[in-house]
Amino acid sequence: MTRSYPSTIAGAVDHELVIKKSRFIAHVAPVASSEEADDVIAAVKRRGWDARHHCAAVSEALDRATLVDRHVLASVRVTVDHADAGRFDNLLREWVPGHGAVLGEPSYATHAQFEVWVPPAELPALAAQVAESSAGAVGVEATGVERLVGVRRT
Question: Is it true that domain 68-152 has CATH number 3.30.70.240?
Answer without folding.
Answer: yes
